Amino acid sequence: QVQLAESGGGLVQPGGSLKLSCAASGSGFSIATMGWYRQAPGKQRELVASITNGALTTYADSVKGRFTISRDNAKNTVSLQMNSLKAEDTAVYYCKVEVWSFNTRMNRWGKGTLVTVSS
Q1: What is the CA radius of gyration of the chain?
Q2: Using one digit for the tens of pLDDT, what is the confidence trace for 10-29?
């Protein structure tokens, strides 16, 4: 019922910036918390940042001060501004949204977008 479309991934040099965006589409749903996760080769998927519908944010310690998460409720989008990128930020980044439909809660995941930080 709800599909997520991610964009903004790519190749960037260390110290550079990228902005990821995720748009939710469909009908008959509402969205609570939205967030970004990432998974590097051989590593577990981890929370990068999340934002509630009350605009409260949470960040992983490894990205605090460098990344900023935001949302546009009118457009059902969530973005992640990534600055001062490091090689260790290289991963597939996944958008996740907490969806409510007919009083049922579900977590919906995007298919992921690759971010590569390398010179």
Answers
A1: 14
A2: 999 999 999 999 999 999 99
